[in-house]
Automatic annotation (TrEMBL):
MF GO annotations: diacylglycerol O-acyltransferase activity
Protein name in UniProt: diacylglycerol O-acyltransferase
Keyword rRNA-binding: no
PANTHER family listed in its UniProt record: O-ACYLTRANSFERASE (WSD1-LIKE) FAMILY PROTEIN, WAX ESTER SYNTHASE_DIACYLGLYCEROL ACYLTRANSFERASE 4-RELATED
Domain of life (superkingdom): Bacteria
Pathway in which this enzyme or protein is active: Glycerolipid metabolism; triacylglycerol biosynthesis; Lipid metabolism
Membrane spanning residue stretches: 357-374
Bias (Low complexity): 495-504
Family: Belongs to the long-chain O-acyltransferase family.
Residues in O-acyltransferase WSD1-like N-terminal domain copies: 12-277
Matches recorded under Pfam families: WS_DGAT_C, WS_DGAT_cat
Organism: Pseudolysobacter antarcticus
């Protein structure tokens, strides 16, 4: 059953309004995802599923309407499921590259604002199964909420009659020190952030002309005001080929998945989180992409805005946007992967102790209160301070089914705002981790060049956890030499195996890539932190 409607129109929250008004031709505010299935999708069954579960959230039957006096939600009296569920197909024996092109096209195409801002595109005959491209405007909900909405469409079995409650243990129950500091009793942090935000609103024009004025606000609100002053006075990110004039065409790509257990093991061995490991790999991939283009990366640090969830776990299914943003430094100029990981982990630890996310949430709320003439310059001022948006969403650890079809893989991309033209996405599902990239076509025309490097950077960290003697200093050159030796040994073993006589088939098999991963897990308790130079 649908939620009961008390009125045809209802006001839109200030933060949701801000996301609605952020839309530009160069950066559409859509969350785009792709789900790949083992079997063909039954379109009629999908429509019934959406009617029963997706439309149980009344918001998805509503249009987002913006006026000079404010934004609001309005019931679509001409709602038609066939408009929102479309069927398409790829040419011939289409592969992953063809699907990436189609997703890129969808990510570059705006939704129709005269209707509820979402669409499901069923892609028939993809690799023996099918795919589903989902596009939902960011003003409807943030990433965490939309993941929960998507999960509400899934089952742990291919027969809905046997539907079991999905184990939510995969979803982080807290955000560590972040949530403890931000979600304090009575939400005083939110109130203080909004109060400071109102001060910013009153002084907005002055700050846009002279951001140094923000420093004076540090005396008006204690710790939150200090965080605000820090955010406003951050220098612009350095100019690279990743940052500059944007077009209207987006490019998406995703890498082959990594075993989640391997990522967790590396995190335990090296004393950092899974998120730290993956972001360090992303930084390494971007470093090599820039080097291959002949760019100078010496001492280069770029920033990524990272969303921080501000909603309690029990409210995860509620729609709307309830997250803040922090600016994470990515040490592109660091050549040593261990040192790069160390810096990323340290930067994340410092951000977790700060209130930067709650300040960003308050500023978004204030931006939603005012006219577009001030929102545009304010958005541009903040977007100049970052090169990318980076998002990590933990997914379910078990295989799921949607409309009777088993989900093989899934990936998503969040929108970039202002002048940011690069998005990094990390998602886990069914014991594997997926890395995806969305980029403005003018900035990165071939995103596969970055995603392919991601796995190589991970391999370096994996091999480093296998070092028997960690008392020696580990240099960047030493890491590269280690990888070269390892790959040469693997090639030699493969060659010797193929050349071995048939009678030797029963002999002991040489070690493979999967063997070291077991060794990592078995030896992690004996490891000592590596020294890096």
């Amino acid at each position: 059953m649908y939620e009961s409607a008390s009125a045809q129109r209802e006001p839109m929250s200030k933060v949701d309004t801000a996301w609605l008004r952020m839309e530009r031709a160069t950066n559409l505010m859509m969350i785009t995802s792709v789900v790949m299935f083992d079997t063909p999708m039954d379109v009629d069954r999908l429509k019934r599923l959406l009617s029963e579960r997706f439309l149980a959230f009344r918001r998805f039957r509503q249009k987002a309407v913006d006026t000079a006096t404010g934004a609001y939600w309005e019931e679509d009296t001409d709602f038609a499921m066939d408009w929102h569920v479309r069927v398409t197909a790829l040419p011939g024996d289409a592969d992953k590259q063809e699907l990436e092109k189609l997703v890129s096209q969808m990510a570059s195409t705006p939704l129709d604002h005269s209707k509820p801002l979402w669409q499901f595109h069923v892609v028939e005959d993809y690799l023996g199964g099918s795919a589903l491209i989902v596009r939902i405007h960011h003003c409807y909900a943030d990433g965490l909420a939309l993941v929960q909405v998507t999960l509400s469409l899934t089952d742990t079995d291919n027969t809905p009659e046997k539907r079991a409650e999905l184990n939510r243990s995969w979803l982080k129950k807290d955000q560590g020190s972040v949530s403890q500091r931000l979600l304090e009793p009575g939400r005083t942090g939110l109130k203080r952030a909004l109060a400071i935000g109102n001060t910013i609103w009153e002084k907005g024009a002055e700050i846009l002309r002279d951001p140094s004025i923000a420093t004076a606000l540090a005396h008006e609100g204690g710790e939150i005001a200090k965080e605000l002053a820090t955010a406003l006075t951050l220098p612009d990110d350095p100019i690279t080929s990743l940052k500059g004039e944007l077009g209207v065409s987006k490019r998406v790509a995703w890498a082959e998945p990594l075993p989640l257990e391997d990522v967790k093991t590396i995190g335990k061995v090296l004393g950092c989180t899974v998120n730290d490991v993956l972001l360090a790999c992303a930084a390494g991939a971007l470093r090599h992409y820039l080097l291959e283009r002949g760019e100078d990366v010496e001492g280069l640090t770029i920033h990524a805005t990272v969303p921080v969830n501000l909603r309690p776990l029990e409210h995860a299914k509620k729609l709307g946007n309830h997250f803040g943003l922090v600016f994470l430094g990515l040490p592109i100029g660091e050549s040593n992967p261990l040192r790069r990981l160390e810096i990323v982990a340290q930067n994340m630890r410092e951000l977790k102790k700060s209130r930067q996310a709650i300040v960003a949430f308050g500023l978004l709320a204030v931006l939603g209160m005012g006219p577009a003439m001030l929102q545009g310059p304010a958005l541009e001022m903040f977007s100049r301070k970052a090169t990318a948006v980076a998002t990590n969403v933990p997914g379910p650890s078990v295989p799921l089914y949607m409309a009777g079809s088993r989900i093989r893989e899934m990936m998503f991309w969040v929108p970039q705002n202002g002048s940011i033209g690069l998005g990094l996405s990390i998602m886990s599902y069914n014991g594997r981790v997926y890395f995806g990239l969305i980029a403005d076509g003018k900035r990165v025309s071939d995103p596969d060049a970055v995603t392919q490097r991601f796995a190589q950077e991970f391999e370096k960290l994996l091999l480093l956890t296998l070092l028997e003697d960690w008392s020696d200093e580990i240099s960047a050159a030493g890491v590269d030499a280690l990888v070269t030796r390892y790959n040469a040994n693997v090639s030699a073993l493969a060659a010797s195996k193929s050349a071995a006589p048939k009678s030797a088939k029963s002999a002991r098999k040489p070690a493979s890539k999967s063997t070291p991963r077991k060794t990592v897990a078995s030896k992690k308790s004996a490891r000592k932190p590596a020294r890096v130079v």
